[in-house]
Each structure stands twice: as structure tokens, then as C-alpha cells.
Specification:
With 244 residues, this protein is of the alpha/beta class. It is 39% helix and 25% strand. Helix 3 packs across helix 4. The structure holds adenosine-5'-diphosphate and magnesium ion. The site of magnesium ion (MG) has 4 residues, from helix 1.
């Protein structure tokens, strides 16, 4: 899936969050969006699936402008895009298997036996084959993310949008989430959009990086190009103390 954002503007009240941004999320590649807290990264992701509509500009999904579509017309497009938003959003009252099967059961495409088979397949892929009966509250943060990713994968998405998937994880766990994102990308040829302010993830995974600052894309390029950036704002962000 090819996702293109052209001249996107979005204002909330007096807050101009996106001020004419243009980005290209190439098919089968991992594209990273970097930027400080509150720079509109999550707002951008929400435009890619029509949760938010732009004031002006377009969002093209495989060449089709989705920015003005009605809810009903958006549904089939949303079904092709997996979202891993901040927090992971597992339902605490359901066990792991039930959480992973949620999307499949909602859409009612498959008989129950097939749902169970797909759920088990994705749990195994995520290294969670024996965790199906566990409740989310009993799992570590990293495991909950893998459960959320397993749920996303049940829908065979053509694109996956990751919103800060390693936030709040310690380095070893972040490393495992990064490895999963890479593996997903290599195994399924999915288009990956990764929003992060984790430099290790960004430079380790990206085919291409965009840097957002005050509503604009102020730098774009490959990880190697970013390492040699002359832009001081970008330099400071890349080299900042990760704990600060
Ligand atoms: N639905 C909304 N209504 C009003 N303001 C919003 C809404 N969503 C986000 N914002 C504002 O937009 C800005 C960017 O938010 P966000 O995209 O969440 O930043 P981040 O880059 O940290 O993900 C923030 O100032 C936030 O308060
Ligand atoms: Mg955010």
C-alpha cells in the first residue's frame, strides 16, 4: 500500500498543528516520523485512516484521496490498515486469545474454527503460543504490545501504523519490539509507518525519515543523510540525552 500526504494542514482552535506537510510512505518500506512531544505526530497518523479530516491538503491511499470520505466509505480502507496506537488498547476484561480474535469476530468474515486457527497462528508468530488464556493485567508491557501486534496481524493489513511502540519499554524490550517491526516488514511486505522519538529504533529500522517541527517537515532523508544533517534543531534532537 502506498500512502501519500500532500500539503496537509490541520488547526485545532488557535493551534496550527500541521502547517502544510508532505510525506510519502513508500510501499513495503519502513518510514519513520520523528519529532518532539506535541508536534502533531499522532494527529498525522489519525489523518492516514480518516479518524481526522484535514482543513486542507490530501491523503492518498493507493492514489485515492480519502480525506473527504464518509465513515461508511472509509471502513473498507481502514480494514486494510493496522493501527498500533499508544497504550496498545487491550481490553482488560478479555483474555489474550479473545483480544487477538476481536477484530476477526467483529467483522464476522470467518467461522469460529478458522478464527481460532488464525489467532493461534498469530500468537505463535509473536512468541505467545502458550499465553492465550492469560489476562492482559498479568503480562509485561512488552508482551502486551506483542498481543496488540498479533491482533493487528490477524487482519492481514497492507500497512501498519505504529505510534511510539517502544515508549515506556526498557532497552532490551524495545529491541525486541524493533525486531518484530523489522520481521513484519520483511515477512509480509507491509508498508510500515513508525512514529517514535526513540533514536535507536528510528536509525535501526528506517528506510526513510521525516522530521516534524512546528507544523512543518524540516528534514527528510535516509538514516545516513540524517546522521550528517546540518540542521541544528535536528542535530540537537538526535543527540539529546535519551533520559531527558
Ligand atoms: N482532537 C484534538 N483536539 C484539539 N487539539 C488536539 C487534538 N488532538 C491533538 N491536539 C493537539 O495537537 C497537538 C499535537 O498533538 P499530537 O499529535 O498528539 O502530538 P505528538 O506529536 O506528541 O503525537 C497538541 O498540541 C495537542 O494538544
Ligand atoms: Mg503522539
Amino acid at each position: 500500500m502506498h500512502i501519500q500526504v500532500q500539503n496537509l494542514c490541520k488547526t485545532f482552535g488557535a493551534n496550527r498543528v500541521l502547517d502544510g506537510v508532505t510525506l510519502d510512505f513508500a510501499p513495503g518500506k519502513i518510514t519513520v516520523v520523528l519529532g518532539g512531544s506535541g508536534t502533531g505526530k499522532s494527529v498525522l497518523l489519525k489523518h492516514l485512516v480518516g479518524i481526522l479530516q484535514p482543513d486542507s491538503g490530501t491523503v492518498l491511499v493507493d492514489g485515492r484521496d480519502i480525506s473527504q470520505l464518509k465513515e461508511r466509505e472509509l471502513l473498507p480502507i481502514r480494514m486494510r490498515i493496522g493501527l498500533l496506537f499508544q497504550g496498545g488498547a487491550l481490553l482488560n476484561s478479555l483474555n489474550v486469545e479473545q483480544n487477538v480474535g476481536l477484530g476477526l469476530r467483529e467483522h464476522g468474515l470467518y467461522p469460529e474454527k478458522e478464527v481460532r486457527r488464525i489467532v493461534q497462528e498469530k500468537l505463535t508468530l509473536m512468541g505467545l503460543s502458550d499465553k492465550g488464556r492469560e489476562m492482559p493485567a498479568n503480562l509485561s508491557g512488552g508482551m502486551r504490545k506483542r498481543v496488540a501486534l498479533a491482533r493487528t496481524l490477524t487482519m492481514n493489513p497492507e500497512a501498519i501504523l505504529y505510534d511510539e511502540p517502544t515508549a515506556g519499554l526498557d532497552p532490551p524490550r524495545s529491541g525486541r519490539v524493533d525486531a518484530l517491526i523489522r520481521e513484519m516488514s520483511e515477512k509480509t511486505k507491509v508498508t510500515s509507518v513508525l512514529v517514535t522519538h526513540d533514536m535507536v529504533s528510528a536509525f535501526g529500522l528506517a528506510d526513510y525519515i521525516y522530521f516534524l517541527y512546528r507544523g512543518k517537515v524540516i528534514e527528510a532523508g535516509t538514516p545516513d543523510e540524517f546522521r550528517q544533517t546540518k540542521n541544528e534543531i535536528v542535530q540537537r534532537f538526535i543527540n539529546r540525552d535519551p533520559a531527558g
